[in-house]
Write a structure and sequence with these properties.
heterotrimer, A mainly alpha (about 260), B alpha/beta (about 290), C mainly alpha (about 230), A: about 260 residues, mainly alpha, 2 domains, two-stranded antiparallel sheet, 9 helices, 2 strands, about 70% helix, flat, C: about 230 residues, Arp2/3 complex 21 kDa subunit ARPC3, globular
């Protein structure tokens, strides 16, 4: 059994205590500012002065850095190198590789693009490390996201690991029977079917009984649903959300003004 | 008035020709324990779905006749109204886990959240049912990290916590090992003693003999027998409708085939009855040899 | 009012329970494909499945949630691409309503339409969020096209048109193969089961045919691609 269903790490911190919607607002504010802010280097500034310090404030700094390194460095590294080399135009040649000029302008653009992606994805990462998915969903459900949608998300979080375990079992069983998962393209395509078919049909057939089971538990009741878990939404959370919205409006407005 | 009344019910699944249930009529009193037996395909599951409203609402198809539960005409009610009166648990424990909850405690609360009960009421009911079903120690575990028997008890608790007037159980132990089976039947026993109305489709005759007030036998969608366990389960003719009788009954039948069983004496249906009957038989034999 | 009814029609309890399974199918098959190093993604089979039997709105929701959950659990890089997944589900659903999931050759057309949608939808995300060259392998094609003098948008668009059809036609065919393998009694529980014409019998042959057609298309496309760049 996988005990970690997501990136979430249970710790005691002001960021963990923050309401999920507040954190979600923070994420979207950071993304908007990184992409549409008044200056291009705002993205890297936000990463170093907001996201990174917050991750340490949340006592997940180490995990944040390692997840960033694992998930993001390859992506933005590749992006940076590719764009530096292949983007057209730019006058100030730095180096010449084969027939391509690497120009200062293009390195600059590549850097801005890479840091924007860094800020976008890492701010999500900060949310995920400090928020249990079911807390996020029940808070959103309380605020008007339809109950079945939050059911669907949390249910996927449970079903997926089950299916991955089953998939691994099937994979091992088929390999033991001599199925080749290496070799040429044809062989690998042919390998897909016996791996996938039992898994897919098995899990689809279960849908009917699970639908009966949740209907038997009043899933479709028109009554106003309640929630067992209580999720804090303190006055400070509301103030932070409004503050963030104002900052975003101010900075986006200042961009228009500067134009 | 009876708590459950089925009047002349005939039901055909969609895309099929033959009715799955034919002219079923029965009344079930509050607090009664009715066992439903029959071969595979005799209509046990269909009857369970009919009693819990999933026929016709979920399965659609063609339904004639009338089902009344606490006065509620199920064919003309909404499924969400019916499930507040009738609880249903079925074979596969894994598929009865809602899938959206991370602990057993939350899992059991799922139905109550849907019913919109206040948080305090949910907590007190969940704690009550955890104690009743003896699974307090599982409360903080993931519902997926449990054995089949434990999952089935969680499924039962999740239904019972909604306090249904009628509990319908469709072979709840058919996918469990002997230990899981015993655990689940211990829960069913305490429910039966508490006066819960229970309809149980099952083929484990020893357990039926212990609990049931009445036994209903289905064959090809029709009621072929209805009576006390003593009357029905000792009837060797049931073997021909594909029903496996208990080993006690079958041993007695063997003995009878060898003309050693006392004439006119009913076959035993439980360990206790078998002990008594064979004890008498042996002591008579001992007596006659002397 | 019509819109609300159209949305409502897609969702019954079967749909709500199917969606998580479909998302899991997307992710698990997507990971299998990576493991087998196949030159496709095949990460929308579940989305298309839902779109066909439950409808465009349910398909759109499945696509969206699929990317969100991929982001939540595995890789937050999936988040920005959710509009593509949304539109894949949406268009697949309308293809199904238009009757394109009733025979094998029509499914290929549906796959092609889905591919065009995906190509169009991912272009602005690649251009405006990632600056044109993203982190996927197909970026080399984009880079090449830019060097041959095309502008950014048309380079990205051409790349997507080149890459998407094989993947999305294979996706549609595999989704259809799965549907053919399910009983009509089971399919009838879903809101738009009439979208699928289930020709019964020869399940395994049909699945093999689907794989063969996929292989054929991969080969054909490789050919076209070689022509284009030489």
């Amino acid at each position: 059994m996988r005990d970690r269903l997501s990136f979430y790490i249970l710790r005691e911190s002001p960021i963990h205590r923050m309401n999920p919607l507040t954190k979600l607002t923070l994420v979207f504010s950071l993304i908007l500012l990184a992409f549409l802010g008044p200056v291009e280097w705002l993205a890297i500034l936000l990463f170093t002065t907001v996201i990174l310090p917050l991750s340490f404030l949340a006592h997940v700094g180490r995990e944040f850095l390692s997840a960033t390194a694992r998930l993001l460095l390859p992506v933005i590294g590749f992006l940076f190198v590719m764009q530096s080399i292949f983007l057209p135009g730019g006058g100030t040649a730095l180096v010449q590789v084969w027939v391509l000029d690497i120009t200062l302008e293009n390195v600059n653009i590549a850097f801005v693009n890479a840091t924007r992606i860094l800020t976008m994805i890492s701010s999500f990462l900060l949310l995920l490390l400090t928020t249990h998915p079911s807390a996020l969903m029940s808070d959103l459900a309380r605020r008007g996201v339809p109950g079945p949608i939050s059911y669907t998300v949390t249910s996927t979080l449970q079903i997926l690991p089950q299916m991955q375990v089953k998939a691994a079992t099937i994979m091992d069983a088929q390999r033991a029977r001599g199925l080749e998962t290496q070799g040429n393209l044809m062989k690998r395509i042919r390998a897909l079917l016996p791996l996938v078919a039992p898994l897919v049909f098995g899990s689809l057939v279960d849908v009917e009984e699970r639908a009966i089971a949740i209907e038997a538990r009043a899933f479709n009741s028109p009554r106003q649903k309640t929630s067992l878990v209580e999720i804090d939404d303190r006055p400070i959370d509301r103030r932070i959300r409004w503050g963030l919205i104002l900052v975003v409006i101010f900075l986006l407005g200042s961009r228009l003004w500067l134009k | 008035m009876a708590q459950v009344t089925i009047n002349n019910l005939t039901y055909t699944y969609p895309l099929t020709e033959e009715p799955a249930l034919r002219e079923i009529s029965i009344e079930i009193q509050a607090g009664e324990f009715l066992a439903v037996i029959g071969a595979n395909g005799a209509g046990k599951t269909t009857l369970c779905y009919t009693l819990s409203g999933f026929i016709p609402h979920f399965f659609r198809g063609e339904l004639q006749g009338k089902i009344l539960i606490d006065g509620l005409d199920t064919a003309n009610s909404k499924l969400y109204e019916i499930v507040e009166k009738v609880g249903l648990a079925f074979q596969n424990p894994f598929n009865q886990i809602s899938g959206s909850k991370f602990t057993v405690y939350e899992e059991i609360a799922f139905g109550l959240e849907n019913l919109g009960l206040p948080r305090d009421e949910i907590r007190s009911r969940v704690e009550w049912i955890l104690a009743l079903t003896g699974i307090e120690d599982l409360a903080e575990r993931s519902p997926y990290a449990l054995s089949g028997g434990q999952q089935q008890k969680v499924a039962l608790a999740s239904i019972l916590v909604m306090k249904p007037g009628v509990l319908v159980l469709d072979e709840p132990t058919s996918q469990l090992d002997p230990i899981g089976t015993r655990e689940v039947f211990q829960v069913i026993r305490s429910l039966a003693h508490s006066g819960q109305t229970i309809i149980l489709a099952e083929h484990k005759m020893e357990w039926i003999a212990e609990f049931a007030d009445r036994v209903l036998v289905l064959d090809k969608g029709e009621i072929v027998r209805l009576g006390t366990p003593q009357q029905v389960l000792s009837d060797i003719n049931l073997l021909s409708s594909g029903i496996g009788l208990s080993r006690y009954t079958r041993v007695a039948h063997r003995v009878n085939q060898q003309k050693l069983w006392p004439k006119g004496q009913r076959y035993p249906i439980s360990l206790q009855e078998a002990t008594e009957a064979f004890g008498r038989l042996l002591s008579q034999e001992g007596g006659s040899k002397k | 009012m019509n819109l609300i009814n159209s949305i409502k029609k897609d969702f019954n309890t079967m749909t709500w329970v199917l969606i998580p399974v479909a998302i899991a199918i997307n992710i698990v098959i997507g990971q299998f494909v990576v493991l087998l190093k196949l030159p496709v993604f095949l990460d929308s089979i579940g989305t298309v499945l839902v779109a066909v039997i439950a409808g465009p709105w349910a398909g759109a929701l499945t696509g969206t949630l699929s990317n969100i959950i991929w982001g939540l659990l595995i890789d937050p890089n999936a988040f920005p691409w959710f509009p593509v997944a949304l539109l894949i589900g949406f268009v697949a659903g309308w293809c199904a309503i238009a009757g394109l999931f009733k025979s094998w050759w029509r499914v290929v057309i549906a796959g092609f339409l889905i591919a065009i949608t995906a190509a169009l939808a991912s272009t602005p995300i690649a251009v405006y969020l990632y600056g044109g060259i993203t982190a996927s392998g197909s970026s080399f094609i984009t880079a090449f096209l830019i060097q041959t003098g095309r502008d950014m948008v048309s380079a990205v668009l051409s790349t997507n048109f080149l890459v998407e059809p094989v993947d999305k036609i294979a996706t549609a065919l595999l989704a259809f193969a799965i549907l053919e393998g399910l009983s009509s009694r089971y399919l009838a529980r879903f809101p738009r089961s009439e979208n699928v014409a289930v020709a019964k019998g020869g399940r395994t042959t049909q699945l093999i045919v689907a794989v063969l057609v996929t292989v054929f298309l991969v080969a054909l496309y490789a050919l076209v691609f070689v022509r284009l760049i030489s």
